[in-house]
Amino acid sequence: MESMVEVRSERVQQSIQGVVIQRTRLKLLFIPVFTSILVWACLVQLWHMRLLSGFTRVTKASVRVDETVHSTTPRNYTSNGFLQVSCNGGLNQMRAAICDMVTVARLLNLTLVVPELDKSSFWADPSNFEDIFDVRHFIDSLRDEVNIIKRLPKKVARSYGYHPVVMPPVSWSSEKYYLQQILPLFSKHQVVNFNRTDTRLANNGIPLELQRLRCQVNFHALKFTQKIEALGQKLVHMLQQRGPFVALHLRYEMDMLAFSGCTEGCTEEEAEELKQLRYAFPWWKEKEIVSDEKRSQGLCPLTPEETTLILQALGIEKNMQIYIASGDIYGSEQRLATLRTAFPKIVKKEMLLDPEELQQFQNHSSQMAALDFVVSTASNIFIPTYDGNMAKLVEGHRRYHGYKKTILLDRKTLVGLLDLHHNRTLSWAEFSAAVRQSHEGRIGQPAHRRVIEDKPKEEDYFYANPHECLCESARCEGLDNSTEVR
Ligand SMILES: *[C@@H]1O[C@H](CO)[C@@H](O)[C@H](O)[C@H]1NC(C)=O
Ligand SMILES: *[C@@H]1O[C@H](CO)[C@@H](O)[C@H](O)[C@H]1NC(C)=O
Ligand SMILES: *[C@@H]1O[C@H](CO)[C@@H](O)[C@H](O)[C@H]1NC(C)=O
Ligand SMILES: *[C@@H]1O[C@H](CO)[C@@H](O)[C@H](O)[C@H]1NC(C)=O
Ligand SMILES: *[C@@H]1O[C@H](CO)[C@@H](O)[C@H](O)[C@H]1NC(C)=O
Ligand SMILES: *[C@@H]1O[C@H](CO)[C@@H](O)[C@H](O)[C@H]1NC(C)=O
């Protein structure tokens, strides 16, 4: 859709936007989520107005970014040294980190070595950068910003005996930290290796051109390999042919449950198994966890059974296709029984594709996750049951692609409502009205990120809502900061 829009004149663009908005409105109407038609109509009007400005923003951002993509002259700067990075975490955590690291390299005039991906995380995926991302496109499309090389030149490595400075930069840092603390290291050592990369750059207070570069990397320079993209698009087409679909990121996977200590709905044996797993992994530091307390604070992923009730309460119809965008569900097929009864058109990639097609990705959890990323980004509605990195990165992509609907579940409120419904304090009608009402402002509409001084972890995450890339400052003024309280 974007590339179509880019090549056309301003006037034609506007009419395309009109069509897209019409379609979006139809989609919004297609799945009636709110009880009152009156309230609904008003909200649609309101969003229509927001979407209208939203689309202009998206187009502008894409055009701006694309000019640099097509540039043929590399940026001419004197490199201050080489930056090597070893990313840690799963696919989406690493994706955000790569965007940050390119930005740091640009700020400090460094030569970046293509990032190394984590092979020792829980997922133990042996994939390299080029197995997941189109490395040629990554290097070429950023050449106007930063020089990226595939490996450290032998000459450089030898000149100081293969011993780079290895260190983790301080998390949530500003550009001042990198200029004042990190840059001087390069005058002494030619190579610095960052051995942790998650959340090393602050969400807020970063100069606009650097924020925009983070977006350029995220939305344009990082493309999945042809192999992943093609199979992902095949899944999308298969689903679209059968009608609209919800992508449900059902984060009820073993690692999530073990790490979070959430055992709601598990048998005693299962709870014990999860606990053993947690104790076995040194980097999951929090060991003694009271599941009920965490759940009531909204810190647990919803169970498949809880998710079923929430989807029904939100008005998702029984015949809607639900694509499960997740790895293996803990407790396997049995744990999906309730959800499948309520929504018979549940599908997973394993059901849509031949085993041979998926085989090449088996044992490569990041490549599997990449397929789910493609489908989740393209879905009519995206609903994550936990706000991990995948949920956040997909949310950001959906905002960028025209504020496609993402339902951001308020788990703390929801578990309270679920408990009241379970003990019959709330009837179904009361329960579902309360669920809908509490999510009216949580569908990924235009909003400012929430800024919390000195508590970067609690702020809205840059990559979930990179609002600087979705609007020009003058146009952002009208946005109501309170629309998304998270
Ligand atoms: C890059 O800039 C330097 C100094 O400004 C100049 O001497 C050099 O010719 C430039 N190189 C290219 C390829 O433009
Ligand atoms: C990076 O290079 C540009 C010129 O291309 C220069 O203006 C800027 O001061 C340099 N910054 C650093 C941190 O070296
Ligand atoms: C990163 O490097 C530092 C300093 O060399 C070391 O103490 C730390 O254990 C390393 N961390 C990782 C995750 O490798
Ligand atoms: C994946 O790994 C398992 C065990 O590590 C192995 O048995 C299986 O053959 C592998 N599958 C593929 C497709 O490589
Ligand atoms: C239902 O649960 C809520 C809190 O979980 C409690 O305050 C309330 O008294 C319970 N009602 C009944 C009828 O058990
Ligand atoms: C929203 O927040 C931004 C920055 O956090 C601020 O500049 C802007 O004035 C705020 N807008 C409103 C309507 O409060």
TrEMBL record:
Q: Which CDD domains match?
A: O-FucT_plant
Report keywords, A-Z.
Carbohydrate metabolism, Fucose metabolism, Glycoprotein, Glycosyltransferase, Membrane, Signal-anchor, Transferase, Transmembrane, Transmembrane helix
Superkingdom assignment = Eukaryota
- Pfam families hit by this protein: O-FucT (PF10250)
Where is this gene product found?
Membrane
Which pathway, per its entry?
Glycan metabolism
Q: Which residues cross the membrane?
A: 28-47
The stretch of residues making up the signal peptide is none
Q: How does it sit in the membrane?
A: Single-pass type II membrane protein
Q: Do you know which InterPro entries this protein is assigned to? A: FucosylTrfase_pln, GDP-Fuc_O-FucTrfase
User: Which family, according to the similarity comment?
Assistant: Belongs to the glycosyltransferase GT106 family.
Recorded protein name is O-fucosyltransferase family protein
